[in-house]
Design a protein that fits this description.
The structure holds two protein chains of two kinds.
Chain A (H helix, E strand, L loop, with lengths): L6 H18 L23 E6 L5 E6 L10 H36 L1 H16 L2 H12 L3 H9 L3 H15 L3 H8 L4 H9 L4 H25 L10 H9 L7 H28 L1 H6 L1
Antiparallel strand pairs in A: 1-2
Helix pairs in contact in A: 1-2, 1-11, 2-3, 2-5, 2-6, 2-9, 2-11, 3-6, 4-5, 5-9, 7-8, 9-10, 9-11, 10-11
Chain B lengths: L3 E9 L8 E10 L4 E5 L6 H9 L8 E8 L2 E2 L5 H10 L1 E4 L3 H4 L6 H12 L4 H14 L5 H5 L8 H13 L5 E5 L7 H18 L2 E6 L2 H7 L2 E6 L2 E7 H6 L4 H9 L16 E13 L9 E13 L3 E5 L6 H8 L7 E6 L2 E2 L5 H8 L2 E4 L13 H11 L4 H14 L16 H13 L5 E5 L7 H18 L2 E6 L2 H7 L2 E6 L2 E7 H6 L4 H9 L10
Parallel strand pairs in B: 3-8, 3-9, 6-7, 7-8, 13-18, 13-19, 16-17, 17-18
Antiparallel strand pairs in B: 1-2, 1-4, 4-5, 9-10, 11-12, 11-14, 14-15, 19-20
Classes of the chains: A mainly alpha, B alpha/beta.
């Protein structure tokens, strides 16, 4: 396939695949329960050995590959489990934004009367910084995984809606859509079986960017202390916890930071590759 | 000394194409004071030859062998720097689409001035004088105003004149014109052709004129070269090639060009009326919120009739409102006034819900076969869409689709394939099959054969004729091409600026056009003195 021949797609996709596998296989990669702490093993440096007490009261020897934090929790375990949260939030937020964005965009692009009102609401949402909306929504709902996902997805909806609307506006003028109208095809079927399939390529590209941004935004929310509760291992939480002692123990921030950067980079490289192969006209312009 | 001499030119196509070479072993020359027409269907390699001469071939199409000489200087060996010097000064090119060939953010004066500044050491005042002189020479009205205009402020014909002025300002020895009139209306085309012939004579240039239209060839060529799939099929003097073609392919091409002689069949005046419009109008109003309101009458008070089994042709130039009329009748746009009677029911005012059951009775085939089929859906899905919309079970619809494919001479096994796997002509057949799937009473063909090569066009026209007879279809045939109209229509209505200026049986209109505009259209039809076809 043409898409898989692209090196950006290969590299970004492979990096992402490795991350997904690591996140899924976290329990079998020499990790301990990421919420376990032991006062005796506080602030260990990467590679140092220490002890961890399990919930059953058992004490086991453990090598802290990436060191430990000020509660004596294993950073390595927390980073690996944190990948789960980041990927789940990133992908789910992208899907949620895509779902609502597509519905609103198609409606605005195909039903003339809805275009004005819907797009003015979208403009309104876009006028407020995404992070502010997310913080406000999380504050309103209490921070659980689904609420964080929605809080991150909502500010992204207008971007998807705008894209779909623009595509729908041009595709609706294509003769094959007019032919479908002449064939008596109802409006809903025209939107979903003629217009939407022709939006897939640019949407896929947009989805990767939304995903990368969502992962970043989740880390920011956690870092600011308004995201998921601090005992849940997320990269943002780990960094927030390590921030205070950053000068003495930089590994607390460094390792989750590297994972975050690599993940976002991988998703963006994948997106660029998809854009180059699926949407060559765009690639030349940008 | 020939102005241009091409020897055994071969240009490779990237691997995986439908053939190995874009152009293979082509040799011909353009002499001084000569117009050589390079004719061929799409994909024959005409434009590749032009680009090779100009040194503008993309890297993916390398010149594999052969030589090109411009006034005995070998271009195939010239450096990029030397080529830059030659382009404009010794050889110049005019393209098909003047809107995209001109820079939209530069005034015309600046664009011509740029050519002079690059190639001559003239002072600004002298350049300005030369610019004005060349603008006068291409017979543009009000030269001062033209020069201060941006391309979008000019008409298509005026833009093409600016392009020609730009090409000729340095008096090149060779002018390459790549389908320069294809995007223009027939009356404008006639003027531009006349201008090119005039300028060629006055300056003694050699002209390499690329076209797909044998009418244009008949109008301006001295000699003709016919290309087929990258090979030279025939080369000779105009009259020899047009009247006594030696090559089989050339004969087929010339035979496929419809004549301006209308066919001889008689239309039955008592056949039942299928479509009747009365004073049908479509007015576009620009919503002037802060600016002045703009009102455009795209179609005004159009009254036409189409009878069962007969074809009414709507003939006119671009902007005459013929497509607007077609789209009103299919109710793709809302008419602003008048009636559209289809078997006694007025469609013009029906709300969408009441209209839906009636939609199946009017179907449409569009111009562009590449955009008329959804690229993401198979041919089968396209063909069953209509029947399924009206409650036919999928299996029955698919079976009917197979029969329709046979009817339009396509393999029913191709139902599972996607549109991109078919050629333009095949796609147009599929579009016709899709329209027929609903058993319509009226088929609207909106420039349905205009984008097709002449040989394919002849086949599609024959197919349309066949289905009209077989299903006793009433057909509304929109075209800008009088030859096509002569071939298929029983009656013809000529449209100009949204109005029908003349309407009647095809033979009467072609024998003695009464309206001045109709007469102008006939006078402009290229190659009208040649009896093409068979």
């Amino acid at each position: 396939m043409k898409v898989l021949a692209n090196w950006s797609v290969r590299i970004g996709g492979a990096a992402l695949l490795v991350l997904v596998l690591v996140a899924a296989a976290a329990p079998w990669l020499g990790t301990v329960d990421p919420t376990l702490f032991d006062a005796a093993s506080r602030d260990l440096r990467p590679g140092e050995a220490g002890e961890v007490t399990t919930l059953e009261g058992e004490t086991i020897r453990h090598v802290f590959l990436m060191g430990s934090d000020s509660f004596g929790r294993d950073i390595y375990s927390r980073v690996l489990y944190g990948a789960r949260v980041s990927l789940v939030v990133g992908i789910s937020a992208a899907l949620v934004a895509l779902f609502f964005g597509v519905l609103l965009g198609l409606a605005a692009g195909y039903v003339r009367a809805l275009d004005g009102p819907l797009m003015r609401v979208m403009d309104g949402i876009m006028a407020i910084p995404a992070i502010l909306i997310a913080i406000a929504l999380v504050a309103l709902w209490r921070a659980t995984l689904p609420t964080v996902i929605f809080a991150i997805a909502i500010p992204e909806i207008p971007r998807v809606a705008r894209l779909v609307r623009a595509l729908a506006l041009s595709i609706r003028e294509e003769p094959y859509v007019e032919a479908a109208v002449a064939l008596g095809t109802p409006a809903a079927r025209i939107m979903f079986s003629h217009i939407l399939p022709n939006c897939v390529a640019p949407l896929l590209v947009q989805a990767t960017y939304t995903c990368a941004f969502a992962i970043l935004l989740e880390a920011i929310l956690s870092f600011l202390g308004v995201g998921l509760s601090p005992d849940i291992p997320t990269w943002g939480n780990i960094m927030a916890e390590g921030r205070v002692q950053f000068v003495a123990y930089p590994h607390n921030v460094f390792f989750p930071g590297v994972f975050l950067a690599v993940t976002v980079l991988a998703v963006n490289i994948l997106g660029d590759g998809l854009r180059d192969t699926l949407d060559p006209k765009m690639a030349k312009r940008v | 000394m020939s102005t241009l001499r091409i020897q055994d030119l071969t240009v490779r196509l990237p691997p995986g194409g439908d053939r190995a070479d874009a152009v293979s072993k082509v040799s011909f020359s353009v002499e001084k004071q000569e117009i050589l027409c390079l004719v061929g269907e799409s994909g024959s390699g005409k434009s590749v030859i032009a680009q090779a001469v100009m040194g503008l071939l993309p890297n993916t199409l390398p010149v594999a062998s052969g030589k090109i000489f411009l006034e005995e200087e070998e271009l195939t060996r010239a450096s990029e720097r030397r080529l830059r010097g030659l382009r404009g000064a010794h050889m110049a090119m005019v393209f098909q689409e003047p809107m995209t060939a001109l820079n939209p953010v530069m005034r015309c004066a600046a664009q011509i001035d740029e050519v002079l500044r690059e190639h001559t050491g003239l002072a600004p005042a002298a350049r300005r004088a030369r610019t004005l002189e060349i603008i006068r020479e291409v017979a543009l009205p009000d030269p001062e105003r033209m020069l201060e205009s941006y391309p979008h402020q000019l008409s298509g014909g005026q833009r093409q004149r600016i392009m020609i002025a730009m090409a000729l300002v340095l008096e090149p020895a060779l002018l390459i014109a790549d389908e320069p009139t294809t995007a223009l209306d027939v009356t404008t085309q006639a003027q531009i052709l006349k201008l090119i012939v005039e300028l060629q004579r006055r300056h003694g240039m050699g002209v390499l004129f690329i076209t797909h239209d044998f009418g244009v060839v008949a109008e301006i060529a001295h000699r003709v070269a016919v290309l087929r799939e990258g090979r030279l099929a025939e080369l000779g003097a105009k009259l020899d090639v047009l009247l006594r073609p030696r090559d089989e392919y050339t004969r087929m091409l010339i035979k496929a060009v419809p004549t301006l002689q209308p066919h001889a069949r008689d239309a039955d005046a008592s056949a039942p009326l299928v479509l009747q419009t009365t004073r049908l109008s479509k007015t576009y109003r620009g919503s002037g919120w802060l600016s002045r309101k703009r009102v455009v009458e795209a179609a005004s008070e159009v009254s036409i009739e189409v009878r069962k089994g007969q074809t009414l042709g709507i003939v006119g130039e671009s902007g005459s409102g013929k497509s607007t009329l077609a789209r009103c009748i299919v109710r793709l746009i809302e008419p602003s006034g008048g009636e559209i009677r289809l078997g006694g029911v007025d469609l013009a005012r029906l709300p969408p819900r009441a209209l839906r059951p009636l939609r199946r009775r009017v179907q449409i085939v569009f111009q562009d076969p590449y955009r008329s089929l959804n690229p993401r859906r198979t041919v089968g899905e396209a063909l069953i869409e209509g029947p399924v919309n009206y409650g036919v079970p999928r299996a029955a619809a698919l079976e009917r689709a197979s029969r329709l494919m046979e009817l339009v001479r396509m393999d029913p096994g191709a139902l599972g394939r996607y549109p991109h796997q078919f050629s333009g002509g095949q796609r147009q057949r599929i579009c016709i099959a899709r329209a027929l799937a609903l058993d319509p009473e009226l088929l609207v063909a909106d420039e349905a054969v205009s984008a097709l090569d002449v040989s394919v066009q002849a086949q599609v026209l024959a197919l349309l004729d066949e289905v009209r007879l077989r299903f006793a279809l009433a057909m509304l045939f929109i075209t800008h091409d009088l030859r096509v109209a002569a071939r298929v229509c029983d009656h013809v209505a000529v449209m100009q600026r949204g109005r029908i200026v003349e309407c009647g049986p095809v033979r009467e209109i072609f024998r003695e056009p009464r309206h001045e505009y109709t007469r102008a259209l006939f006078a402009a039809a290229p190659g009208r003195d040649f009896a093409f076809g068979g």
